[in-house]
Amino acid sequence: YLAKGSRSGTARYDQQRDHFDPAQLALVAELRRAIEGNELVLYYQPKAELRTGRVCAVEALVRWRHPERGMVPPDAFLPVAEQTGLIDALTKWVLATALAQAVAWGLSFDRLTMAINISARNLARADFADTVLSALAAAHVLPGRLVLEITETALMTDPETAADVLFRLAEAGVRVSVDDFGQGQTSLSYLATLPLHELKIDKNFVGDLPDNAAHAAIVRSVIDLGHNLGLQVVAEGVETREITAMLTAAGCDIIQGYLLARPMPADELPSWLAGHRVSELTVER
Ligand code: C2E
Ligand code: MG
Ligand code: MG
Ligand code: MG
């Protein structure tokens, strides 16, 4: 891919080559083969509305099914993909695979959106909007069915290009979610100018609720901030009913986490959806 891929990707790769140790260089070669050879897999984790209990979205999360090392988590290979430009090919693969899966499941029929994670390097390319819109057209999926989850750090890497890309995508109807909110250092005035739909509170603030008073204060403030900006607010990493009750009381819109479901292989989602009872999540207010 690097040889025939984008000029900038190749240049960056060559430039950084010297900084990699041999083990990392081997990993780069292996990862390139993995992307081409279909060793990557997507797991899917649902999000549900607190008010109704209804599942409103699924998020695609990449894993590497390595022939010797088993299932490798994204944190172990995404940084290398980002440093080498392989992330362009990886994101294209994720887009095509997740959208084809959404069509196979009939997600739009169920009014579910498909969320995928986008890295800083993707957003720094002026042609990224075309990449996304072409993938949607090729898969025959309406732009409004796709949510791009973008971390604050990724938004801030090249704010001008990111804003251009996001405005083009939003104009076409694609939704944008700010992932891991509260971890980065986004300028709030910049954030307020972007065409956003959703704010996802970082799981580090959610995991130790309700005991951690500081985190509880942050979570309440972020929920209010999101609502004041006209955004839906999602809490990620929700593992207990107690946390769910607190989030419900604080006015959070959507939850995601092990309490609802762990990320699961594609073939498990339909039966999970069929078995999910809407009443399970809703808590007395
Ligand atoms: P993220 O997008 O913030 O995803 C949330 C992470 O938290 C996922 O880890 C998920 O499995 C995990 N998680 C979900 N519910 C819970 C919970 O209740 N408790 C705890 N402790 N963890 C929970 P995962 O799948 O290892 O992904 C890690 C990160 O890798 C993601 O964070 C995202 O930033 C990145 N990533 C994953 N897939 C992709 C992808 O296809 N492309 C790009 N660019 N990044 C991806
Ligand atoms: Mg995410
Ligand atoms: Mg997150
Ligand atoms: Mg994260």
Q: How is the secondary structure organized here?
A:
Elements: H1 7-17, H2 22-36, E1 40-49, E2 55-66, E3 70-72, H3 78-84, H4 86-105, E4 113-118, H5 120-123, H6 128-139, E5 146-151, H7 152-157, H8 159-172, E6 175-181, H9 188-193, E7 198-201, H10 203-206, H11 213-228, E8 232-235, H12 241-249, E9 254-255, E10 264-265, H13 269-275
Parallel strand pairs: 2-4, 4-5, 5-6, 6-7, 7-8, 8-9
Antiparallel strand pairs: 1-2, 1-9, 1-10, 2-3
Summarize the structure.
It is built from 13 helices and ten strands. It is of the alpha/beta class and 285 residues long. It has an eight-stranded mixed beta barrel with strand order 1-2-4-5-6-7-8-9.
How much helical structure, as a percent, in the residues?
A: 40-55%
* Mean pLDDT level: 90
Shape: globular
Radius of gyration: 19 Å
The separation of the N and C termini measures 53 Å
Helix-strand topology string: HHEEEHHEHHEHHEHEHHEHEEH
Quote the beta fraction. 15-25%
Assembly state: single chain
Specify the number of helices.
13
Organism: Paractinoplanes globisporus
Domain EAL: 24-277
Protein name: Bifunctional diguanylate cyclase/phosphodiesterase
